[in-house]
Write a structure and sequence with these properties.
InterPro entries: E_motif, PPR_At4g14850-like_plant, PPR_rpt, TPR-like_helical_dom_sf. By secondary structure, the chain is mainly α. Helix content is about 75%, strand content about 0%. Helix 3 packs antiparallel against helix 4, helix 13 runs antiparallel to helix 14 and helix 19 runs parallel beside helix 21.
Length: about 550
């Protein structure tokens, strides 16, 4: 058109601007911007609105300049600006624009409500969300399905699933987005059973689930921790023809892998006609995380034979498999590939490499990689702290932690597990207690079972098994096998109090009646104090319960 000397009008420029936005080209956007300035369309509100949306993908400052240069704005431009602010994380600005629009005499529409609600959801500010909900009723926008869908999403993201479901139930004309939003909200709030009931309701309402709903349903089945639900959906997927969708098959194989059904996962994987990178990565990850490192490496080799290039997610899983097998050579070749591919600053791969080098005891190489990262995130710091911890370098782990704090990073619960573990293995009792109390008092992190287990281990290793038992009894959460196991290990290593060991064994048997190892420890403690009657009594108890198996020999041996 331009070559033929035809002058475009603003409608033409509007269409071209939208096309450039879909292409995602920053250079072309700037070229179109220059052309519309040359043609004098910089005051045409529809054109500026479209340009504003395109620029929001790269440069929010330009968006503000475009918005500020329009003296008289229509409702569409106001809504677009609210939406841009919400998408770019400028939530306060989104509310300011929303208020300013009303001060300017522009009455908000359903699109205005839909634009501002994501800001409430992102802030998890239930109070603001309720105000917008009330406002939508007042301005007669509430009964639009798109507004109700956004309210369902907002309440779910604010953690109020009950109200989210109430709003959903009142939607008269539910569309596919309504069902998707509700289903996703249930899963995000750890209510997989409710999500599965929603899928059942959806089908009974004559709505055919699409690919996204099926993916969420598979996720809910995995979250519910019952394979029967997943099997049911697998049958439905086959019947409905969704087995042709690679993402659906990938989600199914991940679900089977989560339940330890690696045979079924492998069969599904082998039946994919055109395996994409995500499917390859999912299968490799499933094997690596599921304790099948050889299968993971074999699948990786098959992937390479198809000339499919791995991404950082694939390589992290391969490194995990290398770590499980102790294959240093392959790990080093992946390191070389990472360097060659320009991933040297990748904050996903480099922490994985630090982990594997430290697990092989090569702390210097791990530290060298750590030092090369220009912008270290929390994962990088955590990997280095854990690397020192597993190698018994408690002082160094604490020093790295101090450096991390000096950069203004806030530790998470994983960092504290590594630190407490380092203190436990290195006998740094005072430092361990300081960190444990600082977790909640300074950083607002409530200790979990893993942190309590570290403290029990720390006390037990120092020979304070009675103090450790009192600590366990005072825990605000129910102790698990890890806690009692750490305490029993302390009794065994320091030949501690028999009374404490007896109590601990009683707790362990209550949690896991089939576990025989704790009887062996108690029997050996009896034998060391020449309490042969107790050894005999314990052997009779084991025989009576039918648990003798391998421990029968241990107890008999102790008695002899």
């Amino acid at each position: 058109m331009l070559v033929n000397n035809q002058r475009p009008n603003y409608v033409t420029i509007l269409s071209v601007t939208r096309a450039v936005g879909d292409l995602g080209s920053e250079n072309m956007t700037q070229a179109i911007h220059g052309l519309l300035l040359k043609l004098g369309f910089e005051s045409e509100i529809p054109v500026v609105t479209a340009l504003l949306g395109v620029y929001s993908m790269w440069d929010v400052e330009v968006v503000w300049k475009l918005f500020d240069q329009i003296p008289k704005r229509d409702m569409v431009l106001w809504n677009a600006m609210v939406s841009v602010c919400a998408r770019s994380g400028q939530y306060r600005e989104a509310f300011e624009i929303f208020r300013e629009m009303q001060y300017d005499g522009v009455k908000p529409s359903d699109a205005s409500i839909v634009s501002i609600l994501p800001a409430c959801a992102a802030l998890a500010n239930l109070s603001l969300g309720r105000q917008v909900h009330g406002f939508s009723v007042k301005c007669v926008c509430y009964f639009y399905t798109n507004v109700q869908n956004s309210l369902v999403d907002m309440y779910a993201k604010c953690g109020n699933l009950e109200t989210s479901i109430q709003v959903f139930n009142r939607i008269e004309k539910k569309d596919l987005v309504s069902w998707r939003t509700m289903l996703h909200g249930c899963i995000a709030n750890d209510c997989p059973r409710t999500a599965l009931k929603m899928v059942s309701r959806m089908r009974s309402s004559c709505f055919r689930p699409d690919e996204l709903v099926i993916l969420d349903a598979i996720g809910a089945s995995a979250q519910e921790d019952k394979l029967c639900f997943g099997l049911g959906f697998h049958g439905y997927i086959v019947k409905s023809g969704f087995l042709d969708f690679v993402p659906v098959v990938t989600a199914l194989l991940q679900m089977y892998a989560k339940f330890g059904e690696f045979g079924s996962a492998g069969v599904l994987f082998n039946h994919i006609n055109q395996i994409d990178l995500i499917a390859w990565s999912a299968m490799i990850s499933a094997y690596a995380q599921g304790g099948h490192p050889l299968n993971a490496l074999d699948t990786f080799k098959k992937m390479q034979s198809t000339n499919e290039k791995p991404n950082e997610i694939t390589l992290v899983s391969v490194l995990q498999a290398c770590s499980s097998l102790g294959v240093q050579e392959l790990a080093e070749s992946i390191h070389a590939h990472v360097t060659k591919a320009g991933y040297c600053s990748n904050t996903i791969l480099i922490p994985a490499l630090i982990d594997i080098y430290c697990k092989f005891g090569r702390i210097r190489q791990g530290k060298a990689l750590f030092d090369e990262i220009p912008m270290k995130d929390l994962v990088c710091w955590s990997s280095m702290i854990n690397g020192y911890a597993i190698n018994g370098c408690g002082i160094e782990a604490l020093e790295i932690f101090s450096k991390m704090l000096s950069f203004g990073l806030k530790p998470n619960e994983v960092v504290f597990i590594s630190l407490l573990s380092a203190c436990s293995h290195c006998g740094l009792e005072n430092e361990g207690w300081k960190l444990f109390y600082a977790m909640e008092k300074i950083y607002g992190i409530a200790p979990k079972l893993a942190h309590y287990a570290c403290m029990v281990d720390l006390l037990s290793r120092q020979g304070h098994v009675e103090e450790a038992l009192e600590f366990v009894k005072g825990m605000p959460i129910e102790p698990d096998k890890r806690i009692w196991g750490a305490l029993l290990a302390g009794c065994r290593s320091i030949r501690g109090s028999i009374e404490v060991a007896e109590f601990v064994v009683e707790q362990l048997i209550g949690l896991d009646p089939e576990n025989t190892s704790c009887y062996v420890v108690l029997s050996n403690l009896y034998a060391e104090q020449c309490r042969w009657q107790d050894v005999e009594r314990l052997r009779d108890l084991v025989d009576k319960k039918g648990l003798r198996k391998e421990i029968g020999y241990s107890i008999v041996e102790a008695n002899s």
